[in-house]
Amino acid sequence: MANDQVDMTPAKEDIKMTADDAVSSAEGQVHTAYDCMPQSLVGLSDNEREQLNKKLVRKLDYAILPIVGVLYILNYIDRQNLGAAKLQGITTDLKITTTQFATAVSILFVGYLPFQIPSNLLITKISRPGMYICVAVAIWGSISAATAAVNTYSQLLGVRVILGVVEAVFFPGAVYYLSAWYTKRELGKRFSALYIAQQVGNAFGGLFAAAVLQLNGHRGIAGWRWLFIIEGSATVFIGVICAFFMPEFPHNSRMLSPSERDLAVWRIESEAGAAEGSEEGTVLNGFIKALSDPKLLLMIFCNMLSQAQGSIANYFPTLVDSLGYNSTISLLLTAPPYILAGIVYYCLMFYSDRKNTVYIPIVTLICIAIVMYIIPLTTTNVGARYFSIMILPFASVGPQLLLYKTINLHLARPVSKRAVASALVNAIGGTSNIWASYLYYQGPHFYAAFGTLMGCAVLFIATITFYRWLVLRDNKFMDSGDEQLIAKAMKRGVTEEMIQLNWRYEMY
């Protein structure tokens, strides 16, 4: 705990939400089931604690979300700008084939995927995670800008591998970082904020690329080189600025008052049933616990299937270009689908938080995606194809938001296990981006791509349904009162503290 003086008496009733709370009906609620409330909070009335909690959540939203959101926009722009560069002539200038370009896209993940796990283990041991993330931002911005200097295919591959290594810090680190600040009923919309930022990055990236294209030939520099120079330089500058403002962890945050800091730590601990700021346990122990949990293996497989569908983002400008417009119009047409996706993500997570559900939204989105895959397979009508392009970004990528929400709630303890789980799901699941990059050929129908993604979607539904059956069965075991059945549930990641707190798997 962040505060050594605690009240060992049973906690009082939960603090209830008021009608004027602008977020979901359950968000901001402080659960007092944990029996170690800090002394600084015991002396407050229920109403005073409620007001303090609302003030805290508001402060976190103002201090954390804008910074993380901006950095994620930069992360996604720098990772995806190769697709825009293709429309601006990089394949012609470097004399690379379609297959070689696919390799250049996918090889980023050779560096990106394996380094997520050690990075996420490291971030749990660093007292200034914000500084760690921002330093990585500045470094990858420099590498992205350096892409403008490549003159050969092999140089492009080398830069992309190094870029992937450094960018591995951000996404799993940001997911873990947010889970250290927000409760389970608050996480959904905060994760959606990340993905909304991603869509803003995609939309802005296309518009920005179209504008930069106008610099083609200026000072003798090709348009695609200007794209990397400008975007990379902006990333370095913003990363350095954000390093001075990004908060630490709740238990050592300097932006909070002592009572706010106690509340920030306690509300996470009371929900998870263990000390967030001082939990003991080795990194190796957390790694072993993560790998021994069958739920993690299922989440990894689900994310592999979901990431395969999300590979559309890597080739989105190519899909839009298949409609037959020139490169500038194609880049402009990439923006509306991502704007729509950002709106849908917020509504999706608002619904998920309010109803405390993820299974039905996941299955619904997958079914919508299947229909959208069929359209480009069966018609060349421009209107119908662009309609599917409008829908696919949120339908194919949306389930990932709900998967990450599941991971951080169902695989929460110990802290090192949660960090490893987030990194493993994103790292191993992300391997789909490597092989999926080779599917996008033979436009405008892209038979290999959409046929494969349809198969992944069907398998995704079957796997997530089996996961639902598994966690509901464990809930029944914990409800039974039978020690043998409870022991079976504990073999799959449930701790003794969770049992004592009457903890259950939710959202399914």
From TrEMBL:
Q: Which PROSITE patterns match?
A: MFS (PS50850)
Q: Where are the transmembrane segments?
A: 60-77, 97-117, 129-150, 156-179, 191-212, 224-246, 296-316, 328-351, 358-375, 387-407, 419-441, 447-470
Where does the protein end up?
Answer: Membrane
**Which superkingdom heads the taxonomic lineage of this protein's source?**
Eukaryota
Q: Cite the Pfam families for this sequence.
A: MFS_1
User: Has UniProt tagged this entry with the keyword Endoplasmic reticulum?
Assistant: no
Which residue intervals define the domain Major facilitator superfamily (MFS) profile in the entry?
64-475
Supply the InterPro entries for this chain.
MFS, MFS_dom, MFS_trans_sf
Q: How does it sit in the membrane?
A: Multi-pass membrane protein
Keyword list (alphabetical) reads:
Membrane, Transmembrane, Transmembrane helix, Transport
PANTHER family registered for this protein in UniProt:
MAJOR FACILITATOR SUPERFAMILY (MFS) PROFILE DOMAIN-CONTAINING PROTEIN, PERMEASE-RELATED
UniProt-recorded name of the protein: Major facilitator superfamily (MFS) profile domain-containing protein
Protein source organism: Sporothrix eucalyptigena
Q: What is the lineage of its organism?
A: Eukaryota, Fungi, Dikarya, Ascomycota, Pezizomycotina
